[in-house]
Write a structure and sequence with these properties.
GO molecular function, one term: GTPase activity
Family: Belongs to the GPN-loop GTPase family.
Strand content: 5-15%
CATH superfamily of the domain at 2-136 and 161-171 and 217-243: P-loop containing nucleotide triphosphate hydrolases
Number of helices: 13
Keywords: GTP-binding, Hydrolase, Nucleotide-binding
Number of strands: 7
Distance between the termini: 28 Å
Largest sheet: 7 strands, parallel
CATH class of the domain at 2-136 and 161-171 and 217-243: Alpha Beta
CATH architecture of the domain at 2-136 and 161-171 and 217-243: 3-Layer(aba) Sandwich
Helix content: 40-55%
Bound molecules: guanosine-5'-triphosphate, magnesium ion
Pfam families: ATP_bind_1
Protein name: GTPase
Shape: globular
Structural class: alpha/beta
């Protein structure tokens, strides 16, 4: 059983990608289930096999604790953890090979807080997992935004501690020329030049970031399934390769 998380900033296309990637896997007669981890979403384009909204209602949390929409979501996920036993039992009933997990747009859950990691570990148990991080290509067209998204991606990669694939989402919305530029940046080319004048700190930061890129971000469109074959191949490569959560053994090498 493999868990594939879809994370990314608000509106980066996670829910749409989960729906389309599920349909893509189903078309290839694969066994796939979907988990909705967003307690605040109102409508979904798919029917989830497990839905956190069955356990917590973000709107009710907002009213009960007098919170705003963002903090109510954070508190909702905290509350979910108090129901860990029931959740583990229900998720345990899913028997599909692939479980796609749609996550909320409040990425701080995965980048800074422990709850994102704790909750994802709860779901995954002993199975293997991979995180697909969506970089909205419409935003990433600007060099500084591209770098910021890579930094956010690194934060999540570090915090979650599971293998990660970066994708450039919604590439159908950008021009061929813009895509070409984004692909070059992904290969570490021209990014520093595109940033223009930067201070020494930023220069070193970007250089290190480029060096640490394992695989260039994969261009993806949920509108025409561009990049789906590539994404699937990369997920397979990672899952079959045996990379997974940081274990006691490899942690001691850090
Ligand atoms: N053109 C185009 N639009 C897309 C694509 N993927 C998503 N969208 C649109 O982008 C908007 C946001 O998509 P969602 O899938 O809801 O994004 P999300 O990341 O789940 O959003 P939150 O859960 O609110 O953070 C919707 O209007 C989608 O139709 C894509 O590949 N191409
Ligand atoms: Mg969504």
């Amino acid at each position: 059983m493999y868990y594939v998380f879809f994370t990314g900033t608000a509106g980066s296309g996670k829910t749409t990608a989960v729906k389309e990637f599920r349909d893509y896997l189903l078309d290839q007669e694969m066994d796939v289930a979907v988990v909705n981890m967003d307690p605040a979403v109102e409508t979904l384009p798919y029917t989830p096999d497990f839905d956190v909204r069955d356990y917590v209602d973000a709107r009710e949390v907002m009213e009960r604790f007098g919170l705003g929409p963002n903090s109510s979501l954070i508190v909702s996920i905290d509350l979910l953890l108090t129901k860990a036993t029931d959740i583990k039992r229900e998720v345990g009933e899913i028997e599909s090979n692939y479980v796609l997990v749609d996550t909320p747009g409040q990425v701080e859950l995965f980048a800074y807080r422990d709850t994102g990691r704790t909750f994802s570990s709860l779901l995954v148990g002993d199975s293997k997992s991979v995180n697909v991080f969506l970089m909205d290509s419409f935003i990433a067209r600007e060099a500084r935004s591209y770098v910021s998204l890579l930094l956010l991606s690194s934060s999540i990669r570090f915090k979650l501690g599971i293998p990660q694939v970066n994708v450039l989402s919604k590439v159908d919305l950008i021009s061929d020329k813009e895509l070409e530029k984004l692909l070059a940046w992904g290969e570490g080319e021209d990014l520093l030049d595109s940033l223009g004048v930067v201070d020494d700190y930023s220069f070193e930061l970007v250089r290190t970031l480029i060096e640490s890129l394992e695989v260039p971000p994969i261009p993806l469109s949920s509108t025409n399934r561009e990049g789906f074959d590539k994404l699937y191949a990369e997920i397979q490569r990672i899952l079959a390769g045996g990379e997974d959560f940081v274990t006691e053994e490899n942690n001691s090498r850090l």
